[in-house]
Amino acid sequence: MEFYDWLLYAWIGSGLLVFPVLLLVSAPYGRHLRTGWGPTLPSNWGWVIQESPSFFIMAGYGAQWLRRRTWKGVQDVRSAEWMTLLLAGCWLVHYANRAFVFPLRMRGGSKPTTWVVVSTAILFCVYNTYLNAYALFVREEVVRSGRGVDASLVMGVAMWAVGWAVNYHSDDITRQLRRARDRSAKAGTHYAIPYGGMFRYISAPNYFGEWVEWCGFALAARTRTAWSFALWTFCNLYPRARTNHQWYLATFPEYAKLHRNAFFPDPS
Ligand code: NDP
Hints:
Elements: H1 3-24, E1 40-41, H2 43-68, H3 79-106, E2 113-114, H4 115-138, H5 141-145, H6 151-185, H7 205-221, H8 224-251
Bound molecules: NADPH dihydro-nicotinamide-adenine-dinucleotide phosphate.
NADPH dihydro-nicotinamide-adenine-dinucleotide phosphate (NDP) is lined by residues 30-31, 43, 106, 110-111, 167, 171, 174-175, 177-178, 189, 191-192, 194, 206-207, 210, 233, 236-237.
């Protein structure tokens, strides 16, 4: 077993360990911010600081890889190499939104976050992106698989795009909610029940969309590392979706009548 494999299995193990902890203790930011977790900072800055390493590490490994190639023209590039670039492109689109667009659009209308959350998120982003970038650009796992464009790539990228759209649209609904309310009430951080989109069925469609995104990415990449990220996303976001769902039920008496699930939509 190579050192990389040890790093990967340690990563998968820590995701599985974090899951039960997060079911019991919610991360102290946003609506679950509470005292006793140390100093805070504005949440939009928190998002930029904690998520931008994921963008820059992947972009850096990708740029180095491109420089090493001696392509003579488009015809010389094998489809597995295009697939590698496509996967990195999906990654960069996601993190350009999360690290720069999402915090810019919040415009301060959000509760602070804590340095504890920001530092653990930095660790998460650096480790996770390093593993994925290394698999794509140093171990060249997709290139070496010798795959051509196949069904799992097409289905995976389509699933990634649907997940991304659900995530983006759901974040947009909560953002509009906050802004509309603030404009009329001239107040800080109000909460209201979100309606529309996947909120019809679940309390945390942004989290569900994000999980679908990384499952699609893993299906398209077919690397263990990409699956480890999908697993981690679930371990991280499912517990918070449950806590948010319970919070909605406790905060808004009428919420129970909406018959929403926490994370998984009910197909019936
Ligand atoms: P939330 O939905 O809790 O909050 C997003 C924004 O909307 C915050 O500004 C929040 O304000 C506001 N908001 C949320 N609900 C309401 C409401 N009912 N009324 C008014 N405003 C509301 O999401 P997170 O902050 O936890 O996550 C943001 C994004 O980051 C999501 O898309 C998520 O998928 C992603 N993420 C990914 C993780 C991963 O492991 N891959 C981990 C964590 C997040 P306030 O902050 O004041 O509560």
